[in-house]
Each structure stands twice: as structure tokens, then as C-alpha cells.
Amino acid sequence: MNKSTIAVIPARGGSKRIPRKNVRKLSGKPMIAWTIEAALRSNIFDRILVSTDDPEIAEVSRACGASVPFLRDAACDDYSPVSAATIYALSQAEKVLGESYDVVVQLMPNCPLRTADDILASIAGFEEPGVNFQISFFEAPLVIPWWAARLDSLRRPQLLFPQAATKRSQDLETLFFPTGAVWIAKSKDLQEAGSFYGPDYRAFVLPWQAAVDIDTEADFQLAEALLRQEGSVPRQSVDAPGSARV
Predict the structure, then answer these.
(1) What local confidence, expressed as pLDDT, does residue 13 receive?
(2) 61, 96, 183, 186: which could join 66 in a potential S-S bond, CB 3.0 to 4.6 Å?
(3) CB of 163 within 8 A of CB of 184?
(4) 165 Cβ contact list (under 8 Å, min separation 6)
(5) What value does the mean pLDDT of the chain take?
(6) Which pLDDT score is estimated for 246?
(7) With bands split at pLDDT 50, 70 and 90, how would you rate the model's confidence at 75?
(8) Is 135 buried (19+), middle (13-18) or exposed (0-12) by CB count in 10 A?
(9) What ranges do the domains of the chain cover?
(10) CB 103 within 8 A of CB 3
């Protein structure tokens, strides 16, 4: 990629479900280190910037090789969308550092199994003509989303897709789910739209392992197990049309 490109890693300190999760040790290193190292190994970024309101996260991130030239003083609460933090980081970079970038890649630290290869593949998808916004998706293993149901107070299932209840799994269309692993946009378009879900946004499908999103203790345990088996568990191949684009 010839355009100037910044990686923004939003990492606020106020995580609730797993306190201090961005600096909690995952397979021997702070969780945020996995994302920083993947960004560094991709070797495509002009700056890898961690946007945080937390001095400890800032210190750990710098030790891992990321840039933390300032602390975030907005979009730090439980209600602001993560896109707002990334847009604010672009604004801070311009005001404090005098730097602007053509492309911004948002890498969520709670997706620590995404690799440099996943980042590079996503960038290649983004470089296809007509793509201004791109969000990573994955095909969920083990479950058939079409058979999902709500349970009422008496445990009676209310099917979300009743028309699919009697169909065989192989006769159902494949569904995909968003993941925070690699989101990409042209910086000016992102700032104008206010979200990565901008006009005509596209999906790029990653293997489910890259999409593991740590929000609960069970997620953390899954990531630990996968990292222990790294190299022995093959990545799921992606057969979605258009070089993993859907």
C-alpha cells in the first residue's frame, strides 16, 4: 500500500466484564501485546498508535513497540462507539503530531489471535476498486444461526427464523458475523461518516480463529487454549466469494 496508513488500537482502561483485560496476561504476555506485535509484523503502518485513557496501558503498549504520544480524553465511557475513539485518535494525531493519514486500520486488542497475515489479507481486500469502508467478518463454527431461538419465561422456544426450522443444515445459506479484528477505512470518509459502517461498506471474511473476541472469561479461556495449540490447530479455510469477500 503506497498510501500513508495508521493503525489505531483503541484500548480504554474501564473494561467491566474482565477488569484490566487489555493488560491481563494471555499466554504469558499482556493481551494488547498480541495485537501490537501483529501490527508490527505486518510492516505496513506508518504509525501504530494505541488510543487509551489509561497510563498503565500506555506504558505497557510503549514497551511492546507501539506509539502512545498522548492519552485519550474523550470517547472513554461505556456508551461511545469504538469508531468514535478511532476518529478522535485521528483528530489528536493531526492536532498534536501534525500528522494526517490516507487510510486508518482499527485493530481491537480483544481480538488477539488475528495475525499479521490476517491484516495483510484484509488490506489486499480493501485495495480492490470501490472500497472505502471494510469490516472483518467470520463464519461461526459449531452453530447453525438459522436455528436460533429466544426462550420465554417457561422455556418455550420462539424461533427467530421459523421457515428454516425444518431445513437441513446443508440446505441453508451461510451466514457471517462481524468481528473487531480488522476494520479499515479511508480516513476522510470515516471522519465524514462517523462510523466504519459507512456508505456501501464491505465485508472481508477471516478465519474464525482470527475473530475470537475476548469479552468474557470463557472467551479468555478459549483464546488461551488456541494459543497453547498454535501450530497444531489448522486455520479454517475461507470459501466465501471474491477472495474471502462477501
Answers:
(1) 84
(2) 61
(3) no
(4) 147, 159
(5) 90
(6) 39
(7) low
(8) buried
(9) 5-137+176-244, 140-175
(10) yes
* CA–CA separation, 220 and 108 (whole Å): 15
Residue 235 is given by DSSP the state P
CATH number of 5-137+176-244: 3.90.550.10
Asked if 223 and 212 count as a contact pair (C-beta separation under 8 A), the reply is yes
Give per-residue pLDDT as tens, 189-240: 999 999 999 999 999 999 999 999 999 999 999 999 999 887 544 455 454 4
State residue 240 phi and psi, 5-degree precision. Answer: -65, 150
Cell of 241: 466469494
CA angle 197, 184, 94 (to 5 degrees): 100
Other beta carbons within 10 angstroms of residue 76's beta carbon come to 19
| 243 pLDDT higher than 60 | no
236, 203 contact by CB (below 8 A): no
As to burial, measured by CB atoms within 10 angstroms (0-12 exposed, 13-18 middle, 19+ buried), residue 72 is buried
Q: Phi then psi for 123, rounded to 5 degrees?
A: -60, -40
Percent pLDDT > 90 in the chain is: 80
